[in-house]
Amino acid sequence: MKDKVLVLGVGNSILSDEGIGVHLARRLAAENLPANVEVQDGGTQGLELLDYMDDVAKLIIVDCVKAGDEPGSIFRFEPDAIDVIPRQYKISFHDLGIYDFLRIASALDILPPTVIFGMEPEKITWGEELSPSVERKMGRLKELVLEEINLSLSGIKSKMEVAQAV
């Protein structure tokens, strides 16, 4: 039975706020997380991200989302919601975006239940530092992702207990 929670932080860490997901992944990697929680810096990888799907019961993606909202605004949605997000909102700035990755993983039937956290950038320019408005919200984003991890672990544990009882 799949029991891993994968947090995948994606983005380009040398383009300031475009690296939101990578910055969060690095911060989470420094936490004392349970053994079945894996945190990966997915950077700007495309189809290579499919290699991370083995044994994943829950996928949590963190990325920059340009929705025209206040910088630092945090969004939580599931992959199906991407189809209804207006096209002027940019889900990913990478060559092969998260939208493409999710569609391909789904078509290959390897996409686990997935949640996406996005944050509105203030600026996307050369630089490795996050803008002040984004940096101020990184603690809250981390809290939300940790809450999602805990909810996921509870659900996985419940499913494993039911499987063992059968």
Strand-helix topology:
Elements: E1 4-10, H1 20-29, E2 37-43, E3 56-64, E4 74-77, H2 79-82, H3 98-107, E5 114-119, H4 132-165
Parallel strand pairs: 1-2, 1-3, 3-5
Antiparallel strand pairs: 4-5
Tertiary shape: globular
State the strand order across the main sheet: 2-1-3-5-4
Distance between the termini: 13 Å
Strand content: 15-25%
The major pleated sheet works out as: 5 strands, mixed
What is the CATH homologous superfamily assignment? HybD-like
Number of domains: 1
In DSSP terms, counting alpha (H) and pi (I) runs of 4 or more, how many helices? 4
Mean pLDDT: 87
> How many strand elements?
5
Q: What is the N-to-C succession of helices and strands?
A: EHEEEHHEH
* CATH-defined topology: Rossmann fold
- Strand pairing plus helix content: what structural class? alpha/beta
Task: Report the C-alpha radius of gyration, rounded.
Answer: 16 Å
CATH C-level label: Alpha Beta
Q: Which architecture does the CATH hierarchy give at level 2?
A: 3-Layer(aba) Sandwich
Helix content: 25-40%
Low-confidence stretches: 84-88
Summarize the structure in words.
The structure is a single chain. This protein has 166 residues and is an alpha/beta fold. It has a single domain (4-165), classed as Rossmann fold (3-Layer(aba) Sandwich). It has four helices and five strands. It has a five-stranded mixed sheet. Helix 1 crosses helix 4 (132-165). It is globular and about 50 Å long.
